[in-house]
Design brief:
This protein has 4 helices and 16 strands. It is mainly beta.
């Protein structure tokens, strides 16, 4: 029987074929957007770098810790990550046995991290990983119940870790990780005493890669279609020269305590600095710091004597909207017993192109904490 091949039938047949193509497993696999994640468990062990004089015996046996991390890469073209060898970032939890728990407690921490691969990311590559967060469940100094703890004066503080190590691919989903890291627990002299806990040691871990979109494609126990577990062949772009000049105006405040003194003192910093941005990643600064230290009141009753003036060169490493800042300052005139120089490691978040927030640690006599700075600033320039 002859049937006319009308335009309506042609459209109907086309829709059926199109639906069949879209329903094929291969087509569905192409439509699913990959959502790569990785889960890592890491073990730490090492020794303390202690500058106090009462906890030597409590810290003799070193420390041990375990942490769990959830991370994700951003495998996109034309993304800021392409300029940094496509790092992985995320958050984690930390639990440590740092010494005698009767004196130090059992510190835990929650933190954010970013892992920058170094060189080619083949089956083995090196990486550098900074982490920063909040630590808690510490047992602070108490003149009656815990007089030997001269390292920590509060139950909570800042956790910082810098890990340098390597990654070895074991199979499609699993990596073996290893590294050497430096860890720091401190409250920045917000509460005293505050020698802090500084640790150096080794770490090993296992990292499991998975794709959250797998269940959308094929969630059977033994799937026929399997999505990649990790991103591959990501673009890597070289650093771009910028050559921009500008000025930063920054104001910060903080509070501190003196040893054996429950009073709280106000501190502030005003900074004016020249900034030269060499490239997307690297910047250099030079500036002047006017600082007020209220904790000097005990030895310097006149308000005018509590002001300090310094000058600093600095370096910034930039990624996304963040700048990791490192500055070395030198006092101009009398340092009021704080030594010749000070350091200022800081993290800056660029809210807009001209407005930023910053948190940093100003040290005294080298690396000892002086006070934590919480501030806002303006960038004048392009």
């Amino acid at each position: 029987m002859n049937r006319k091949f009308t335009p309506l039938r042609l459209v109907f047949i086309t829709l059926i074929l199109f639906a069949f193509i879209l329903s094929s497993p291969e087509s569905r696999a192409q439509q699913v957007q990959n959502k790569f994640r990785n889960l890592e468990i890491k073990l730490h062990s090492g020794f303390h770098i202690y500058s106090g004089d009462k906890l030597d015996e409590a810290l003799d046996n070193g420390y041990g810790a375990v942490e769990i991390r959830l991370g994700w890469p951003v495998p996109k073209k034309d993304s800021w990550t392409n300029y940094y060898n496509n790092p992985t970032y995320g958050f984690g939890v930390y639990s440590g046995a740092l010494g005698n728990p009767d004196l130090l407690g059992s510190p835990n921490a929650v933190f954010g991290f970013i892992s920058f691969p170094l060189g080619k990311t083949d089956k083995h590559y090196f990486m550098i990983e900074p982490s920063v967060g909040i630590t808690y469940d510490m047992k602070p100094h108490d003149p009656e119940t815990n007089p030997l703890n001269d390292a920590i004066g509060s139950r909570a503080g800042v956790y910082f870790d810098l890990n340098v190590g390597g990654v070895l691919w074991v199979n499609r989903e699993v990596d073996f990780t290893y590294g050497f890291d430096l860890s720091h627990f401190s409250n920045g002299r917000t509460f005293t005493p505050n020698y802090g806990l500084n640790m150096a040691g080794f770490n090993v871990g296992l990292r499991y890669h998975f794709n959250r979109s797998q269940n959308k494609l094929d969630n059977r126990f033994v799937p026929d279609l399997v999505l990649p577990a990790r991103p591959q062949n990501l673009p890597r772009l070289s650093d771009t020269l910028v050559n921009r000049h500008g000025m930063n105006i920054y104001a910060a405040v903080g509070t501190t305590q003196n040893d054996n003194d429950e009073n709280r003192y106000f501190n502030s910093t005003v900074t004016l600095e020249y900034a030269y941005r060499r490239s997307l990643k690297h910047s250099f600064t030079f500036g002047f710091d006017l600082m007020y230290d209220g904790s000097l009141e005990r030895n310097y009753p006149e308000t005018s004597e509590r002001f300090l003036l310094g000058v600093h060169p600095g370096y910034d490493f930039s990624f996304w909207r963040f700048d990791l800042r490192a500055q070395v300052g030198f006092y101009l005139g009398d340092s009021r017993g704080k030594g010749v120089f000070y350091l200022r490691p800081a993290l800056r978040y660029n809210i807009t192109k001209n407005f930023f927030a910053q948190v940093g640690l100003k040290t005294k006599d080298g690396a000892a904490a002086d006070w934590v700075e919480y501030g806002l600033g303006i960038h004048l320039g392009k």
